[in-house]
Amino acid sequence: MLALAGFRRPLAAAAARSGGGAMPRKGKAAGKGPAEPGAAAGPVVAAGEGCVRVAVRAKPGSRCSAVTDVTAEAVGVAIAAPPSEGEANAELCRYLSKVLEVKKSEVILEKGGKSREKVVKILVSMTPDEILEKLKKEASS
């Protein structure tokens, strides 16, 4: 028994000195590494092949669908649908097609089906500046 107690003490002391282990720390700063080159340009970037990607921060469960803000990271969109069974995702694509004046089939949810942080792909030959201008105009109205 004494040998085991003596054996445990050095391990506990070593763990306390090293900071608890070899795993990286979790927190807000964990994912703040260098971003993708295209993501640094703003929430709306050209995706090649005549497509444009829009980073969206969804806010489901609102009274009415609206563009709430346009920041350097994402376009905030309030969605008038509950976040269940893909209803909010469908409403997001429908609403963005209305705002951008394109067909519903040309607005595709590319990433973030179960997240508030989404990437929407617009399958039209518009420039990112044209799309950003329409989104900012909708946000200000």
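The above is record 1. Record 2 follows with the same two-line structure.
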Amino acid sequence: MKFTIVTTVLLGLLLTPALATYFQNTDTNRQITVAGGYQILTINRELDVAIIQEKGGSWTTVWNYDRGFVGTKVVRDHVCYVSRMNRNVLPSFNALPTLAEENTSLKGQGQPTKEITFVIKRPIRDLKSYGPDIYAMCRGLRTYVVYEVDRSEYVYVQEPCFKFDVLDILGFKYCRSNTKA
């Protein structure tokens, strides 16, 4: 009898964390309102895609972890930017829901811990290779490949940059041209 009780308790202790993780990850799509309600994070676990939208609609960014690309649509400029995903700077896919939930009521209360500056490299002709989410978001818009630059290298901008904060943890800055020092 004691052996049965001990075995049952041990199985319960071992299976509880595994089952908790399994049931947390079964939500294929999850939507979280972030940063005081001015951003919405939608997570698709099936495709490893995160979509963050500014509620006013001025920008949307798609982080495709499966293909390794980031796409951003700037509505006022009718333009999209696509870059390789810097996995050393962006939070991991599995950490996004936790980070978003921590920032649900912090609109504008802190500066992002990191900022990435991008500069246009060239126009994109074939959007389909960047994944269905980026294709759907950018289809019909001027779309450019952009590359990340170190802020110390970035000296001059002919036109103003478009800057926004994602989840109050990461700043994105898209600039049209630059001159290296």
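The beta strands are 29-34, 39-44, 49-54, 59-64, 69-74, 79-84, 114-123, 142-149, 162-166, 170-175.
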